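forwarding from the other thread:

> can someone predict this with tetrahydrodeoxyuridine?

sure thing
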Amino acid sequence: MTAAVVGDTAVPPPDWEGLRAAAREACARAYAPYSGYPVGAAALVSDGRLVTGCNVENAGYGVTLCAECGLIGDLVNGGGGRLLAFTCCNKAGERIMPCGRCRQLLWEHGGAALLVDTPDGVWAMDQVLPQAFGADDLNR
Ligand code: THU
């Protein structure tokens, strides 16, 4: 895969195996006593940082935080930036797709060019969430 360009900076291709390993490690820290379905997520940030998250469930089921919520918290609290490449997995280490709500979260912080590690290969975010609603729409 060729290097992406963010602003004026050429960014090397993502280390997908490194990202997947970080997602598996995050998955092992998940708190998922209700569903029994731990999830881990990891992403590469435009400044080279790695951010991660795991799902955190709650006795009030609807309050559950997906792994992507933790990852976005890690991103923003760690200084912000744009997401360049994202992966998430289940406890078997299999790639899974982000849920609909989390696709919207990823869109906000990665946009159309974010690379998503799907079970069918690497897809751009605008394939994962076509015709997305985003910040630009608020100005129309
Ligand atoms: N889950 C995530 O963490 N991310 C997703 O994108 C899909 C679902 C979690 C939420 C819940 O704790 C468990 O998986 C079962 O839905």
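The helical segments are 16-27, 67-77, 100-110, 125-128. thats all i got for now
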